[in-house]
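User: I'm new to structure prediction. If I give you an amino acid sequence, what do you actually give back? Let's try with this one:
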Amino acid sequence: MDIARRSMMAGMAAGAAVAAFGMGQAAAALKKYKNEDFYKNGKFDAEAAKQAYYEMMTAFNYPIVDRLRSADFWTLDFGLGQFTEVGMAGIFWVNNLKNNYFGHEIYLLPGQMIPEHKHVKTADAGPKLEAWQPRHGYIHIYSEGTPTPGVEDRIPPSHRECCQARVEQKLMPGEVGELAGPEQWHWMKAGPEGAIVTEYATYHDGTGLRFSHPQVKM
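Assistant: Good question. You get back a string of structure tokens that encode the predicted 3D arrangement of the chain. For your 218 residues, that looks like this:
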């Protein structure tokens, strides 16, 4: 039993080392972007943003299927003009109101965050429930509760005054984190090599979105 256990632990350690090496390679392959790279004449350049995500996908050997080259693939800077800090890309693979399920892929550049938000009940749907599984790279997710010690230093400057979700959890590829409860504030932030994250959830009704930052726009 001890030999089998040691063998299993060695295998897990080797797998973790390979994953870490792969993420390091991806980080090294990515261009170092400046915020101004994503703005043209003062306006957010969505096409430049998409190209950055495609480069990240290539670095992670993530397949860029035809649908990711279509209008179904979108990107946002949430109206804050700080895309390298607050922004994302995504695609809704499926969003089924009748049967109440949703499949979403989230794409984050290195260090990029999705602004803090919650999903409230609407006339058409209950409060959205979510879980997240990193596929490439890693993320930190943040939820309500007693703040994690030192978390203040890791909250991006744009959100330090308004951020309410301060319980921190790191998720590596293959790990799954869940929303702490309905209508709770939450947000996520990518690690230094960026991240591709699968979201499992109930139906997404955009009218139920609420952001803690007063200047966020969709």
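You can read the tokens as a compact description of the fold. Here is one thing that stands out. The CA atoms of residues 76 and 87 lie 6 Å apart.
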